[in-house]
Amino acid sequence: MSLALDAPAQSAPPEADDGVWLECIACGGQFAPFDDVRFTCDDCGGLFEVRYAAEPTWDDFEGEGVWRYAAALPFDEGVSLPEGHTPLHEVPRLREDLGVNRLRIKHEGMNPTGSFKDRGMTVGVRVARELGVGRLACASTGNTSAALAAYGARAGMETLVLLPAGKVAAGKVAQASLHDARILEVDGNFDACLDIVQELATRGEVYLLNSLNPFRLEGQKTIGFEILEEFRDDHGRFPDRIVLPVGNAGNTAALYKGFRELVTAGAVEPEEVPALTGVQAAGAAPMVEAVEEGNDGIRRWDSVETVATAIRIGNPVNAPKALPGIRATGGTAVAVEDEAITEAQRDLAREGVGVEPASAASVAGLRKLREQGRVDADEDVVCLTTGHLLKDPEAAYEAGDDPEPVANSTEAVLEHIGAR
Ligand code: F0G
Questions:
Q1: Which has the least CB within 10 A, 40, 75, 377, 408?
Q2: Would the CB of 114 count as within 6 Å of ligand 1?
């Protein structure tokens, strides 16, 4: 089974529901998608991709948001709030400072619950409904839990989330709580939480909605479709590079899959596919290690730490899909220090774009790659910012200036601001 860019994304369909089936990326085994609940290959334990008998082209897309791309999704509509159709901001001062030909920020923090996870959940929860499962669950560094709680609530389904105790930003816990998820705080990191949820799913206790679930990634691939369409409409071409933060590497895998489908359909030439460029925090960088060392798999990091708690992950489960994507598109991966992440968060905020720390990692990564001469000045670049500033109020407060106390009078205020 090949995940190469020029290999057809599709293969002959088995006897499956409506031209949709699951295919193992390791052994090529094919399974009907909705007759039974499965997350990984029955035969070899490999990761699944969703396959379709029909390939999408630009003309098939109509409407707005994730479901604009229904022709490339397993259903025509989902459990929707709605999601997608996020801004692609220009940031002229930052572009000048970083010295690239074009720089656009795809702000996924503008989704209904404030992160790109909503794109995955609108599809994933729709599939859960199709399967008739009882309880939805995920492990999360925060955003997945907020999105699952909201979409589960929308669908009227029970949700359970496992969070690493003390390591999830306040805004995200507040969302999961108010949207009525049952929240379990685990004395361990995200990877430990995911181990447990996988085990619960295997035992049939829950339906897993982490990015191991291939249907989640179907929704998330629409980020790539939107970027290509909007960038082309504005600039007459596709971007050379997409820079994105990496945790479990689900988004990297999702974008790559979407691009492969467009290449197979002849909608995009292989050489037009943007170079997928992953950024991790230096304290949690197993993907960067694998790319730098040329390894096919990743080494699990047991101890991880970073201010960007959303990507505080030591065992990126989608690495077998994402590593081929980074390589086949001519991309790379880079690690950035926490100070650089906070500085990039300030840079974006000064352009009016408010993001949480993990999101700013993309811009910090681009800066480092420019400094190292690994990204050229003539490139057109899109940085993905994955979550909203308000997700992590404490980090924002730390990164910004403190409020200044002042006495209760106009004179005192004038004196304080030096207006006299
Ligand atoms: N950025 C943000 C804001 C995230 O919340 C995540 C992942 C990522 C980037 C990394 O994306 O896993 O597709 O490489 N957050 C997950 C969660 C793990 O539980 O919310 P990835």
A1: 408
A2: no
**Max Cα–Cα distance, the chain, nearest Å:** 80
In the reported structure, the alpha carbon of residue 187 is separated from the centroid of ligand 1 by a whole-number distance in angstroms of: 20
Task: For domain 88-114+215-399, give the CATH number.
Answer: 3.40.50.1100
What fold characterizes domain 117-208? Answer: Rossmann fold (3.40.50)
**Contact between 248 and 190 (Cβ < 8 Å):** no
pLDDT digits (tens, 9 = 90+) for 383-394: 999 999 999 999
Taking the centre of ligand 1 as the mean of its atom positions, its distance from the CA of residue 27, in whole angstroms, is: 27
Task: Tell me the C-alpha distance between 106 and 247, whole Å.
Answer: 18
Residues 281-328 have pLDDT tens digits of: 999 999 999 999 999 999 999 999 999 999 999 999 999 999 999 999
CA–CA dist 303, 188 (Å, integer)? 10
Task: Read off the tokens for 6.
Answer: 């020029």
**Ligand 1 atom with least separation from CA of 210:** 19
Interatomic CA distance for residues 120 and 403, integer angstroms: 38
Per residue in 321-356, pLDDT (tens digit) is 999 999 999 999 999 999 999 999 999 999 999 999
